[in-house]
Design goal:
- The complex is a heterodimer.
- By secondary structure, chain A is mainly alpha-helical.
- Chain A contains 26 helices and three strands.
- In chain A, strands 1-2-3 form a three-stranded mixed β-sheet.
- In chain A, α2 packs antiparallel against α3 (61-94), α18 packs antiparallel against α20 (452-477) and α18 runs parallel beside α21.
- The longest helix of chain A has 47 residues, at 587-633.
- Chain B is mostly helical.
- Chain B contains three helices and no strands.
- Chain B starts with a helix and ends in a 13-residue tail after the last helix.
- The mean pLDDT of chain B is 91.
- Classes of the chains: A mainly alpha, B mainly alpha.
- At the A-B interface, α26 of A face α1 of B.
Chain lengths: 664, 97
């Protein structure tokens, strides 16, 4: 019934330019079975967060102490349970026919005003299924890792509560069937990100970084909320299904505006230029947070948004071009930052920015790129979480020192960390056979066939990636020891290394998703069928060129870093390019000049106007009245005879006035 | 007739000037009485002229008010004199700004 009406609607719609039409989201409702448990995927971590954050503070002291001691186990258990449920749901989805893989669940009506009704609806389809596995899977591993990493933190219970809150919000973002619910999750992850970046709030730098991330994210959120408002105004609804059906009838200008607003939202969350400045500072948070939120999951929400809203972007070519431009700039921007940073986490953060640029680039290419955007998102989730957790393990062994110039020769001291990190390293530079090789290769190939300039820049980015990752690898695990005195690096406990091993295995094997183009076929009902343009070169030649460029990057790093002696202090007499890269390519300076200073000037001007103009008028008026009455007061001199005189004068005046009236 | 009114005006002016220029409270008081009686003279004169009793009745009212005023006024002057040893109206100028 549902399917039938949907087919009719499709036939009635005008076809978009280029012949292909964005697919329509039309979930089957109430299919029952295991899918009725869909809400539990969100519910479990939410329950964990409520128990750990909301309930515990009201318990009697002994019970609270017990939760403080064992609360992390509860937090981890809810994440793992959510993962198991996601896995079951995924298998159930696999078992269904390809055209019945969109499952909806209506929980309750969220709010209803006039003609607008927004439901708490969930949508579980092929795209959401992959995200669910990534978030709960990587999330569970990071929960386990954090048990070890945060073992000595007195506020560990709260940390796990925040992590659960994040997972619940992220799953809401992914599973929601309308943009309003997505926005709820979107804000939820923003809040969790803020709380976790500033988790060590006693450090002023962490508190400032949290605030910076929150404020810059607000800029993006304005874009998303305006987009939602525009959808309400244009379509009267924000359900993915309804919007995807009605989008074809909307005006071109509206669609373009919608696309650009959504892109602004995606830029904020995914740290794309020009809203990129918060991500590097966000590394002030504990390392599991950097791995989970600022590498594997939350920062990819922007990519999810673009892919999910493909029915809008497909009809708004200008917005799509904007996505590609933003992505290309960001992938180079992040890569350049990665080359100059000595802080291991900041180097990895630059790399994250750059890799998300690749995903955005793929997402901007249309149906050709969507599956590869998601594919790279998944493999990146594996290898970047792996490397961040590896970096955390290194910091754990080096007394929380993050400066790579104080590392060196750690491959012997920390063999497990070294080997797992190496897997992530080989995956990210795109060593043939590793997961990153397949995903990045596909993105660059698609980019080359769509636009030569963008493709070449993407190849260049791959070379730079190879350079900075090799530099990071050499500085940390090879070259001579440059340890601080009193530091005795040691391997981390099992609870931290086991997640590393699992993630390393996934980094190596992630490429299997591409076997027989599985992921492309799997996502096709969501992202639409792609018409392949022939790439300018045969695919094998492109692969060879990319691999050659990567090898060039590795070699450059070997000759510039590995063969030389590494100074323990960063050299000062460096070129302009290095200085610029160390200063985040002046991202903060640009924000300062373009936004902060004009805003401060405006506020200063308003304050001045308030002080001089408004206060002047009010206080001047009262001063005038006061002065006047002060001088009038002098008339009350206490001499009875002067009062008698004024009385007489007054009487005379009255008489004269009466005479004037009567005679006049 | 004119003589009565002129006399009344002269008496009133003398009283007025006395109130304004003299400092002794008793004399000021006497000048007030002079002004009241100047009015009485005018009232009675005009009553005679018009041939009705309204003005004469008014004159009696003025006398009653004057008598009451004397009682209160002299009491105040006495009190002031007892505390300040002076009957000057300019000395009693504390109630001011």
């Amino acid at each position: 019934m549902n399917l039938l009406s949907h087919t009719v609607l499709l036939a009635a719609l005008p076809m978009a330019e280029g012949g292909h039409h964005a697919p329509v989201v039309a979930p089957d409702m109430g299919f029952g079975g295991v899918f009725d448990l869909l809400w539990l995927v969100i519910g479990l971590p939410l329950l964990g967060a409520v128990l750990l954050l909301g309930v515990t503070p009201f318990l009697p002291a002994p019970a609270r102490a017990a939760v403080d001691k064992h609360g992390h186990l509860l937090g981890t258990a809810t994440a793992v349970a959510s993962f198991v449920l996601s896995l079951v749901l995924f298998l159930a989805l696999l078992g269904r026919d390809a055209d019945q893989r969109q499952v909806g669940q209506q929980l309750w009506t969220w709010f209803e005003t006039g003609s607008i009704t927004v439901g708490m609806d969930l949508l579980y389809d092929q795209l959401a299924a992959l995200f669910l596995l990534l978030i709960t899977g990587v999330g569970s591993l990071i929960h386990v890792y954090a048990i070890g990493y945060m073992a000595h933190d007195p506020r560990r219970r709260r940390f796990f509560g925040y992590l659960n809150l994040f997972v619940a919000a992220m799953l809401t973002l992914i599973l929601s069937a309308n943009f309003v619910g997505l926005f709820l999750g979107w804000e939820g992850v923003g809040l969790a990100s803020y709380l976790l970046i500033g988790f060590w709030q006693h450090k002023p730098s962490a508190a400032a970084a949290a605030k910076k991330a929150f404020v810059i994210n607000r800029v993006g959120d304005i874009g998303l909320s305006l987009a939602i408002a525009l959808m309400f105004a244009t379509f009267g609804t924000t359900d993915f299904g309804a919007v995807s059906e009605l989008a074809g009838e909307a005006e071109q200008a509206t669609l373009t505006t919608l696309g650009l607003l959504l892109l602004l939202g995606a830029c904020g969350k995914s740290a794309q230029v020009p809203l990129q400045a918060w991500l590097l500072d966000a590394m002030e948070g504990p390392t599991p947070v950097s791995a989970l939120i600022h590498a594997a999951t939350m920062v990819t929400a922007g990519v999810y948004l673009v892919v999910r809203a493909n029915f809008i972007f497909e009809l708004a070519p200008i917005a799509q071009t904007a996505v590609v431009v933003v992505a290309t700039v960001t992938l180079l921007w992040g890569a350049i930052l990665g080359c100059a940073k000595d802080d291991i986490k900041k180097a990895l953060a630059g790399s994250t920015m750059s890799q998300i640029g690749y995903m955005m680039l793929a997402a901007g290419l249309g149906p050709v790129g969507y599956p590869f955007a998601i594919f790279h998102l998944l493999t990146h989730g594996f290898f970047k979480a792996n490397m961040f957790l590896g970096a955390g393990s290194v910091m754990h062994g080096m007394n929380d020192d993050v400066d790579m110039r104080h590392y060196g020769a750690l491959n012997k001291a920390m063999p497990v960390t070294f080997l797992t990190f190496a897997m992530g390293y080989l995956a990210i530079i795109g060593f043939p056979g590793f997961s990153g090789f397949w995903s990045k290769d596909k993105i660059i190939e698609s980019a080359l066939s769509e636009n030569l300039v963008v493709g070449v820049l993407a190849v260049l980015g791959a070379g730079i990636t190879a350079f900075y990752m090799t530099r990071l690898m050499l500085l940390t695990f090879f070259t001579a020891k440059r340890w601080e005195t009193g530091v005795h690096p040691h391997e981390s406990p099992k609870v931290m290394t086991v997640p590393l091993v699992v993630l390393a295995a996934l980094s190596v094997l992630g490429g299997v998703l591409l076997l027989g183009d599985w992921i492309v076929t799997w996502l096709e009902p969501v992202t639409g069928h792609a018409e392949h343009h022939e790439p300018p070169l045969p695919a094998i030649a492109i692969t060879l060129i990319i691999t050659a460029v990567v090898a060039l990057g590795v070699a450059a790093a070997w000759f510039l870093v590995g063969k030389r002696e590494v100074p323990r202090e960063a050299p000062r007499d460096v070129s302009f390019a290095t200085r610029a890269a160390r200063a985040d390519l002046y991202g903060d300076a640009i924000n300062d000049a373009v936004v902060v200073r004009p805003a401060a000037g405006l506020v200063g001007g308003l304050a001045l106007f308030d002080r001089v103009g408004v206060d002047g008028a009010v206080e001047g008026g009262s001063a005038a009245v006061g002065g006047l009455s002060n001088s009038m007061r002098r008339l009350q001199n206490g001499f009875v005879r002067s009062y008698a005189l004024s009385l007489l004068g007054g009487a005379l005046l009255v008489v004269l006035a009466l005479l004037a009236v009567n005679l006049g | 007739m004119t003589q009565y009114v002129v006399l009344s005006a002269i008496l009133f002016t003398i009283g007025c000037v006395g109130v304004l220029v003299r400092r002794n409270a008793i004399v000021v008081f006497m000048c007030v009485e002079l002004m009241l009686n100047a009015c009485n003279l005018a009232f009675v004169a005009f009553a005679h002229q018009h041939g009705n009793l309204d003005g004469q009745i008014a004159a009696f009212f003025v006398m009653v008010v004057a008598a009451a005023e004397v009682v209160i006024g002299l009491a105040i002057i006495m009190t002031i004199f007892r505390t300040r040893r002076s009957a000057s109206v300019d000395d009693a100028s504390l109630l001011k700004y």
